[in-house]
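Dear Dr. H.,

I hope your travels went smoothly. While you were away I took the liberty of generating a structure for the chain from your last submission, since the lab meeting agenda had it listed for discussion. I wanted you to have the full record in hand beforehand rather than looking at slides cold. The sequence, exactly as received, is reproduced here:
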Amino acid sequence: MKTRMMVIASAILGVVGLVGAAVWAQGPGMGPHGPFGHFGGFGPFAAHHGLRQLDLTAEQKTQIKGILKSHREEFHASLEKLRTLHQTVGKIAHQPDIDEAAIRAAVGQAVGPLGDLAVLHVRVRQEIDAVLTPEQRQKAEALHEKLRSHVEEIRKSMHEIGDDLLEDAS
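The corresponding predicted structure, in token form, is as follows:
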């Protein structure tokens, strides 16, 4: 039974980690590679991660950089909350005795910051879309759809791994 609980806790940590990765991929912010990370020069923003592929004008680049910078603090505040919660769940999950209530409480606290990031994502996407031409928006949506498909493949793989772990633990 204890092994099964450890598998479940590990699965929760994996899901929280995957959510964190997805969140990082969906929000604008400062990354280790400068103010806009390494995704097309404009940061880890999933809907427009390939902005370089959109043949933006210099004016569009300036406008988009301004949009991303204007939301930087909001993004970082929500992301920092999620990082802290992820660390908390990790600490709880590595204790000798499983504290299911504490794990559930910590994971439950992620709802607020995840909601904040979802709203921010939509707000920033709309602001950027207003700067793009119809053709650029169409191409950006195709790139976003490709990324969504990739994230879905990762999610399915994580689900299969979790199923395999649960079967092995039985």
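Two observations you may find useful: Residues 15 and 21 are 10 Å apart (CA to CA). The chain has six helices and no strands.

With kind regards,
E. W.
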